[in-house]
Amino acid sequence: MARGKSTKLKPFQKLLTVLQSGKPVTIDEIDATLGKEIYMYRLSTYMWHIKTQANGVVKAIKDGRKVTAYQVVNADEVKEYMKRAGITSANFTPGQTTKKPSIAKLADLAAKPAKAPAKKAPAKAPAKKAPAKPKKVEAVTVDADLEIVEVQEAA
Fold first, then answer.
1. How far, in Å, CA of 13 to CA of 34, rounded?
2. Is residue 28 assigned to a domain?
3. Domains of the chain: total
4. Is there a domain that residue 125 lies in?
5. 113-147: b or e for each residue (b if 16 or more CB lie within 10 Å)?
6. Helix, strand, coil abundance in the chain, percent, nearest 5
7. What is the pLDDT along the chain (155 residues), one digit of tens a residue?
8. pTM here?
9. Are 15 and 34 in contact (CB under 8 A)?
10. H or E stretch including 16?
11. Contact 51, 24 (CB under 8 A)
């Protein structure tokens, strides 16, 4: 069976549609346009995909240590990749779809707790027999000074 190209875009390709102009795009703008479609905590991963798969050069614009905006430096090469990969023909417009929410707690899932099965009494192991104690037998007097005690082991 012949398969066509998938029209579903990957998250980094959705981000490329916003960054394709070559102008700096702030993180707040990215969040406003794509916040419902991509996970914002994975922005650095998406930038790495743009670098490795789309052969893009992404410049991070910083304010101190914090990144405030991103810019694609080689916008022409990235646009060629977008044509080749079919991103431009997919007619993607940001904000149409919603991302699948991640479930952090059981309450988010709205699941009902399952009843625990009734516990069965554990099978008892056969009792170990204690070693038999020798029985005392009455003493037989042989001599007034000498006393003999016989000991028998129980079988």
1. 11
2. yes
3. 1
4. no
5. eeeeeeeeeeeeeeeeeeeeeeeeeeeeeeeeeee
6. 30, 15, 55
7. 445 555 688 888 889 988 988 899 999 999 988 888 888 899 999 999 999 998 899 999 999 999 999 999 999 999 899 888 888 887 777 777 666 666 666 666 666 777 777 777 666 766 677 777 777 767 665 566 666 677 777 66
8. 0.58
9. yes
10. helix 11-19
11. no
Domain with 35 in it: 11-99
Alpha-carbon distance 154 to 39, whole Å? 79
From 90, 66, 101, select the one nearest 13 (Cα to Cα). Answer: 90
Q: Looking at the domain assignment, is residue 33 inside a domain?
A: yes
Task: Report residue 4 as tokens.
Answer: 């066509």
The Cα angle at residue 148 between residues 142 and 154, in degrees rounded to 5: 135
Tokens linked to 55: 């052969």
Which DSSP string corresponds to 67-128?
A: EEEEEES-HHHHHHHHHHHTSGGGT--TTSS-PPPP--SHHHHTPPPPPPPPPPPPPPPPPP
CATH (domain of 84): 1.10.10.10
- Neighbouring C-beta atoms of residue 54, cutoff 10 Å: 24
- 20 occurs within a structural domain: yes
What is the residue type of 25?
A: V
